[in-house]
Each structure stands twice: as structure tokens, then as C-alpha cells.
Amino acid sequence: MTDPTTAALEIVTIVLVALAPALLYLAWIRGVERYRTEAWGPVLSAFVYGAIFATIVAAIIEGVVVDLGTSASQAYPAPEFTFLNGNSTAGAFFLILVIAPFVEEALKATGVIAQRAQIRQVADGPVLGASVGLGFGFFEAMLYGLVGYAVGGLSTALAIVLVRSVSSVLLHGSSTAMFGYGYALEKVEGVRGASGRYYLLAVGMHASYNALASIGAILLVLGVSNSIGDVGSLVALVAAIAFATFAFEHVARLIRTHDYPSLRGAQGRYRIPPATRGSAPVRPK
Question: H-helix or E-strand containing 55?
């Protein structure tokens, strides 16, 4: 049995290993915005909001929804209501593919809205959105790591945390960044309905990622052999990591595209006069 001091050190290690990649991603995505870079205060505040408030409240809401759905499916035991039963396979997939994306993206979106005073240009939206999402992803990865630690020890916990750090953490940052982009379009440029559309896009990204990550489990449910299911799980993991990485890079491109707003050209690109390249941006007269 692990002594208390060793256990405490191992838990601290899990927390730090989960936190470090999220903070590195946070510093990188903040640095992409070079014109009027968002201050560290709002960025860290958004990160903490996502890590503490959004994750805890989302877990509570999801738990309540699953309990209500399970009760309803038991009260009305018709086959078409099986998906409401949280104890069934259909209920588990419904939670992963529908309930979690809608609830979690809504809670993370409130973190962006809470920072609305800091959104002065469109590029600020995805930066703050990514901050909230990365905080959410960090805390979620840490919790999964702690569960893994309780079941399989430190090596299992670190493996879980590291895999989630290059997949779900990036996904959470990317999906909420897309909502932040839509919210900023509506707030700064008056694009009506952009917040709602980009919220649905964030939900779609989240659900798509979860579907990719669940391919192995889906194959097993369909009766595919364990060996093929294991290969499917590996392929699904690689696809999920690629999806999350591509999405995060796409967010960075959006930020670059909407940076330097005073130098934006007529075709939606930013033209920097030769005399100002390599120096501070100059507003045209």
C-alpha cells in the first residue's frame, strides 16, 4: 500500500502533468494575437472559469438529466425510450453524443460571455473562448487521471492525462474558441445570429470528436470481434487526436486572419504597408 506522503506526491504530479500542457497551449494561442494582445488577467480568469465553474456545473446538470431520463424510461418502458436510460448502452451513447456536447458547450459559452467587456476586436473572441475551453479540458483530464490513479496507479493516470492532453484538451479549447469567434462577430461587427450558429458548430465539433473517440466501443456493441475492435479503437484515437489538432490550428488561423483590424484590406485580408512591416502597426489616416 502506498504511504500517504508518496500518494500525495503522485497526486500532485498528476495535477501538474495535466496543467502544464493546457497552460502551454494557453500561452501559445494568446501569443497568436499580436495586435492588442489580450491581457493575462482576463485570459487566466477565463481559464479558471472553465476549469472550476463550467466543469462542476456541467457535471451536475448532466447527472440530473441522466437521472431524470432513467426515471422516465423506467416509468414508460417502451423501446423508443431506451436512449433515455443512463444505465443502457443506448443511454450511454446518448449522453456522450448529445447531452454532453450541448450542456458542456453551453456552460463554456457562459465563460466567454462573462468576459464580454474584454472583447474589443473579433480576434479576442476565439482567444478567450480557447482559454475557457482549455481550462475545462485541463480539469476534466485531471479528474480522469485521478480516477485512473485510483484504479491502476500512477502510470495509468499519467497515460490517461497525456493522451487527453493531445486530444480532448485541444478539442475543448477549439470548440469554445469557435463559439467565441461567433460571439465576437455578433458583438463587434454586428453579425446577427452568429453566436447561435457558432454555438451549434461547437456542439457539432464536440459530438464529432466524441463519436470518433467512441468508434472502438461502437464496433464492440455491433458485435465486431475484440481484435478488430482494438484496431478500431487505435484508429479512432489517432483520428480524434488529428481532428482536435486540426481544429486548434484552425482557431489560430482565425485569430491571425482577424488580427490587425485597422489594416484589414477590402478583400478581408490585412495589408501591412512595407514601411510598417516588422514594426508596430500604424492606423491609416
Answer: helix 55-75
